[in-house]
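Handout, page 2. Input:
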Amino acid sequence: MENARILTVGDSSILVEFEQVISPEINARITTLVRLIKEQQFEGIVDMIPSYCALLITYDPRVMSYGTIKERVEKLLELDIEAKEEGTIKVYEIPVCYDGEFGPDLDNIAKLAGMSKEEVIALHSASDYLIYMMGFMPGFPYLGGLDERIHTPRLDNPRLKIAEGSVGIGGASTGIYPLESPGGWQLMGRTPVKTYDPSREEPILLESGNYIRFVPISEAEYEEILAQVAAGTYEFVVRGREV
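Output:
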């Protein structure tokens, strides 16, 4: 397809690079290419890692040569992979408490936007966010679709410790910190659910190409869900979205 090229990365990876634009259309091409490769059941594929504008494919050179994987991917790129997959895609509903200590930067986000905290929360929880890619740490989603009115710069001095489940804004992106870590995004809430849990059969809950919807909850609801998560009885709410 147009505006795609294959680059060599080391001796066991290739990079399929698309037009350098962050957009749902480019994301759809990457997601569809991943699906086509899975359907073809290429032998020797070790991993596929999507980013905003590219797909890194790692393979076992003892099983498949560089020339073979390059040729096969080129043939898939000749197909009309701009066509979206028919049916439905997943929308994960992520409960978030925006109250009190859970949103230490919410006042600042609201001040910069010239809005009330309630207006910021309403905007943040009003959209389905496209998961462009996973990165930074296991289970961290980079989400697209944040309303421009609440785009917020990163902190000048990043925090040394951010609590697991913190939801923040960094520039034009919003996302979830799946583990306690340092970070510079401005924090507006926290979710009691785990987007990364190594004890689960599928440790990483989210997948690029799907969507997230943030659902405001109270502190009491936060504690209730947190207890369910600890007991292993919490059931994630996942709905379908037509494409």
